[in-house]
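Study this chain:
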Amino acid sequence: MSNSAPNVTGPATGSASDQADRSLSAPSLMVTGIALYLLLVALLSAYIMIAIFPRVIMKPLNPPEATVAKTGPEWEALVDLKFRPLRVFGHEVMGALEPAQGLLLLAFLGGLLGSFMHAAHSFAMYVGNRQLTRSWAWWYCLRPPIGGVLGLLFYFVVRAGLLTASVEAVSPYGVVAFGSLAGWFSKQATDKLAEMFESLFRTDKTKDYRDKLGAQTPTITKVTILPATQPSTDTILTVEGEHFQAGASVVLDRQPLKTDVVSPTLIKATVPAAERPAAGTESQLTVQNAGAGTSPSAPFAVRF
């Protein structure tokens, strides 16, 4: 989630890009709040699921022989879809749900737990690498409810297309599994839902949106060096290419430069006079967009 290339190392005194990164980093209070929020969502979801989960009962395969020991093959374990009421410290806060309502709640809770796994793994990775920025706080806050709704919608899709039996024949374990996987692997689940929707409502008309959320790797096609008027003045680089996004950074030989994104195809970067390569030196220049999961452009050779 860093706004500069992960392998970039600034000067010992700290460059302007390093200072900008530190200003965007999530403060410790925010990190603690997100961690407690995710843990609370996981604990509440697990507690409610365990508290209301329907019980498993033993039913005889041969009712006339119901007096035999329950360990024999004449008995089988079946799930009775009678959900338990939700009690907290001995107080009933929610009555027993009907089978159809209980399965919906299990799908939602499964989506919450699956999305918690996704969000917690991402959160731990970026906090451990000290790359968590404050702009991602709302992503972690909204990730569990998004996963819960996705698990619920995926359950509806599965019920409509695959499970045509009565509600009593649906396994609550399968409902939790579908909801959890939909919340955990949300991208794959939404892609599958989009594929199903497109196959049902196919159209030849397409729309291009100006701002897409998908990360696109920038490309450099041309770099123009505006020579400094004096040895003590900075050098301006005009970088032309594609897929330049707001917040992108230009890196010259592992050194981040002050960057001004003019348009998606034009960037202006400033090389300080004290850090300008010697005349005739060939340097490597890259551009990387801000945000997690972005990749820098292919190196572009620049001769000063």
In short: Residues 99-128 form the longest helix (30 residues). Confidence is low (pLDDT under 50) at residues 1-20.
